[in-house]
Design brief:
The chain is an alpha+beta fold and 298 residues long. Strand 2 and strand 3 form a beta hairpin.
């Protein structure tokens, strides 16, 4: 006759002698073997997860090591590069927008010999893909200057020095095959939000310098006169760009407003995602859960 008693979770290893317990629960060796098999499976899953975590940690440490030991990195001979935009696209695997190259020219106007530190008086260092066109470093730019908590859509290009919140600016792309849709500031030690600050580097830097001068959100070790001097040079440079109408200094440009209408869903970093339907009808599909429920879950 088939035994329909529930299985004791301790199997034949159970130490209980109570007759009612022995009568009401099955303690077969088969059940114990099943328990051991399940335990072995669980241990294997934990081992697999541990290996994946170790691999992720190793990649993160390699990323940090690469970013900290740049003096030992092999370099491209930039004097042999005929077309900088094509060169950057080939190494970066993505095109960079015109404001990126124009921003470099502005920094060169402040410090021709070392534009990487042209904005040091306002606590800004050029990094990321700028290290390719300034220093010529042969790096993996998919991870260089990437912060651990940033989403893959975000590419850092400006670092705020001595920032308690690890503040940094970067380009955000909805599609790696297209140009960035905006420039944002990320502060992973504060809230991990991707806060949009314009659709170009000039607009983002203009916002940041206004914040420094007002003292609303950020402090700077340099004297305010140095900050205002860079702001004056910046304003003159932007005045020259006005004639071409290349870039706007507004926080919310028409391009950003247009993207807001296309956002399919909220994200924890607040920038949202844009996944349009393709010609075959593939694209974003809503998940039957609220944003609040997901936030509570994670």
């Amino acid at each position: 006759m088939e035994n329909k008693r529930p299985l004791c979770k301790y199997g034949d290893k159970c130490f209980r002698k109570n007759q009612n317990h022995l009568k009401n629960f099955e303690h077969s060796s088969n059940q114990s073997n099943n328990e051991n098999l399940n335990l072995k499976t669980e241990n294997q899953e934990l081992s697999d997860k541990s290996e994946k975590l170790d691999l992720l940690t190793k990649k993160y440490e390699n990323c940090i090591e690469q970013n900290e030991n740049l003096d030992k990195i092999e370099k491209f001979d930039l004097s042999k590069i005929s077309d900088l935009k094509i060169f950057v696209a080939e190494i970066n695997k993505m095109e960079m927008p015109d404001d990126f190259f124009q921003f470099l020219e502005f920094c060169k106007s402040l410090n021709e010999s070392d534009p990487k530190y042209a904005l040091i008086d306002i606590g800004i260092e050029l990094t990321g893909i700028f290290d390719l066109i300034i220093r010529g470093y042969k790096l993996d730019y998919r991870v260089h200057a990437r912060y651990f908590l940033d989403p893959p859509e975000f590419q850092t290009v400006l670092k705020v020095l001595n920032s308690p919140s690890d503040a940094h600016f970067g380009y955000f792309r909805d599609d790696p095959d297209e140009l960035p849709v905006f420039v944002a500031i990320s502060e992973p030690k504060l809230d991990c939000k991707i806060n949009i600050r314009s659709d170009n580097l000039f607009g983002a830097l203009n916002w940041y310098m206004d914040e420094l001068i007002s003292g609303r959100s950020y402090k700077i070790e340099s004297c305010m006169e140095k900050v205002k001097k860079i702001k004056a040079s910046f304003d003159l440079w932007c005045e020259k760009l006005k004639s071409s109408k290349s870039f706007s200094l507004s926080l919310k440009t028409p391009r950003i407003k247009s993207r807001e209408k296309k956002v399919n869903a909220k994200t924890f970093h607040s920038a949202g995602i844009v996944v349009p339907l393709d010609s075959n009808g593939f694209g974003y599909r809503e998940i039957p859960e609220t944003y609040g429920k997901f936030k509570k879950e994670f």
